[in-house]
Design goal:
Layout (H helix, E strand, L loop, with lengths): L14 E3 L9 H14 L2 E5 L2 H5 L20 H18 L5 H12 L6 E2 L6 E2 L3 E5 L1
Length: 134
């Protein structure tokens, strides 16, 4: 059996978009619209929620008692908790860019753009053109 390896670069570059807005703006709608538009030009989108990433206690655990989870689950309490948690992470890591680094780590840890090895000819190809919306 002969193994062939075809290393094809993606036809289009990988795109990364950072979406930010003031509190109260429907970021989900913006991300969905952008993902749909990208799908129209054959990009596969991966949405990363930075606040969900930073709250991943397995990766970014703060010492107990630094930031208390809110007893109430209302919008104001939730936003205040996330702001305090983000500030505490920056303080804990002694780096004001800690959230940016969390975003970069989230981009790098996904399967986007990863090459797949098929069988039986062991052909290496790119999955598709990818984009990331943060």
């Amino acid at each position: 059996m002969t193994a062939t390896v075809a290393n094809k670069q993606p036809k289009s570059p990988e795109l990364i978009f950072g979406i930010a807005g003031p509190i109260g703006v429907n970021i989900e709608a913006i991300c969905d619209s952008l993902s749909n538009a990208l799908r129209g030009v054959r990009y596969e989108s991966h949405i990363i929620h930075l606040t969900k990433e930073m709250l991943n206690k397995e990766r970014y655990k703060l010492p107990d008692g630094i930031v208390q989870e809110p007893p109430d689950k209302d919008f104001y309490s939730d936003v205040t908790y996330k702001i305090n948690y983000a500030n505490a992470l920056c303080s804990e890591f002694s780096n004001p860019a800690a959230l940016a680094l969390i975003g970069v780590r989230a981009i790098g840890s996904g399967n986007r753009g990863q090459r797949r090895v098929g069988r039986p000819t062991t052909r290496v190809t790119w999955q598709s053109c990818t984009s990331t919306v943060i």
